[in-house]
Amino acid sequence: MKKQLVMLSIASISFGTLASNPSYFSADNSIESKLCSLSANEGFTAARKEAAKHGIAMSRFSPSILCNGTDIRELAKKAPSQHVPKKAQVEVFAKNQQKETQLCITALKQGLTPVREKIGNLNSLKCNGEAVTDFVKRYQNAAI
Question: Which keywords does this Swiss-Prot/TrEMBL entry list (predicted)?
Fold first, then answer.
């Protein structure tokens, strides 16, 4: 029983590392090897930018460099997708019931027009230490 448990643990660890994205490296210091590893790790666009720095033209439509017998464009398609980090979700809430605080929340929910009607000059209202117009621009898509 103990032997089976150990084998199961080793197998799960092995399969976990096989499932992760491999990292490619260049075996020598040639620019072609560098472009191949860059294409495999970061994508074709990154490799094209680096190639342009060295005066090498790489086309998206025609074969240019072979990496271990595979076209660099095909290698780039296998590159791990570049995840764009999501913007942090911001929640805006009224910390107190003061008139100015409620006006700031109203400006976010309904826009600046109702606030302008109530106080006249928007420059006199500060929300979290900044002008109400800047506050609304910054947090208009925040959860309220």
Answer: Exonuclease, Hydrolase, Nuclease, Signal
